[in-house]
Amino acid sequence: MIEFAGVSKKYKNGTQALKNISFKVEKGEFVFVVGASGAGKSTIIKTILREEIPTSGLVVVNGYNLSRMKRRHIPKYRRSLGIVFQDFRLIPNMTVYDNVAFSLRVTNVVSKEIRSRVPYCLKLLGLAHKAKCYPEQLSGGEQQRVALARALVNNPSIIIADEPTGNIDPELSFEIVDLLSEINIQCGTTIVMVTHEHELVSYFNKRVITIDDGVLLADTRSGTADYLFTGADLMDGYSKTLSSREKAIDFSDKALPGPSDPCATACGAEFPVGRRPDRDKQRDCAPAGRKA
What would the pLDDT profile of 186-205 be if each residue is shown by its tens digit? Predict the structure, then answer.
């Protein structure tokens, strides 16, 4: 699904952003990419989005050889990706509905399909009652959920999340990552998330790719690797607060469209599905935020 083979990137100013990076992300994986500022995380994301071309090495995503891709093929390729940014990038003079619909309209999706997909995704993410609101009327967490709905509405095979919790409160960070995790589990969507929040990485216990000074320092199947963290136990201070919070995504709502719906069909099964007891139990121990 995503493969970097011996990838190096040197910018014109002489900065060596990536140094012989190699890794593979299989279909349906959830991967955190972590590292200090300037480590090369953003260059990896820009390379996947085909905003940057590697100086050497091979990058293949969804069967596309990005190193050799012609410019005219880039828009089609990017339609196979869902992208969530730190700064939301919502259009301020458009409503929530139109922000989500925009990514369909620019790809010439017919109006009937837009009227089906957009309300479905808004309801899925707990935003149906905000459809006529403008971005300035939303909280940071709600804006990020709109950005996620916009990324999801095209039924992407891969979602790239670039610091999606960077501009929201720590207490809401868990909800966004939990939402991404549910999409990954229920739809089988591949998730690649860049983050600096080690508490989230530790809690969700997914695969972790660690980048340091352009070098792939480690690739672990567990987010609890001790070398990633310093100081006291980062789980200290976590409390059982999310159990009383309204769930942003409700997989128990049987009134939502079935497999004939475009979004549901993309998952290969009826989505949303029943709530899983193990996730409910895990949610009761969710992080409540961090002290400044």
Answer: 889 999 999 988 888 988 98
Q: Per the domain annotation, does 289 fall within a domain?
A: no
Residues with Cβ within 8 Å of 65's Cβ and at least 6 positions away in sequence, in order, are 58, 59
In this structure, is residue 290 part of a structural domain?
A: no
Helix H segments across 1-126?
Answer: 41-48, 74-78, 96-105, 111-124
pLDDT in tens, 107-148: 888 999 999 999 999 998 889 999 999 999 998 889 988 999
**What range does the domain containing 190 cover?**
2-283
- Token readout for 109 is 């999706």
Task: Tell me if 113 is assigned to some domain.
Answer: yes
Instruction: Write out the H or E segment, with its range, that includes residue 193.
Output: strand 190-194
- Pairing mode of beta strands 207-212, 2-10: unpaired
Structural contact between residues 21 and 30, judged by C-beta atoms closer than 8 angstroms: no
Domain CATH for 68: 3.40.50.300
Q: Are 20 and 43 in contact (CB under 8 A)?
A: no
Against a cut of 0.85, is the pTM above it? no
Q: Classify residue 76: in a domain, yes or no.
A: yes
